[in-house]
Amino acid sequence: MANVVELKVGLHCEECIKKILKTIKKFEDIEAYDIDTKLNKVIVKGNVTNEQVIKALQKIGKQASNWE
């Protein structure tokens, strides 16, 4: 069963977005992902949890929190 993870992440530049995409692509069982630069929102659909994605983004220096 796929989870949909929606996170608020600071998307400041193209380099930030590239780092985030590279990190997301490392997860196994990802069905889809999307980055909305206008809303600073990252959406990941697959066999992952909010906590897993937040921890991975924190490792690359990005602050992430659950989308409210």
UniProtKB/TrEMBL annotation:
Primary localization: membrane
GO biological process: plant-type hypersensitive response
Localization in the cell: Membrane
Bilayer topology term: Peripheral membrane protein
Keyword Ubl conjugation (UniProt): no
Record key words, sorted: Metal-binding
GO cellular component: membrane
UniProt GO MF annotations: metal ion binding
Domain HMA, chain residue ranges per copy: 2-65
SUPFAM superfamilies: HMA, heavy metal-associated domain (SSF55008)
Keyword Metal-binding: yes
Protein name according to UniProt: Heavy metal-associated domain, HMA, heavy metal-associated domain superfamily
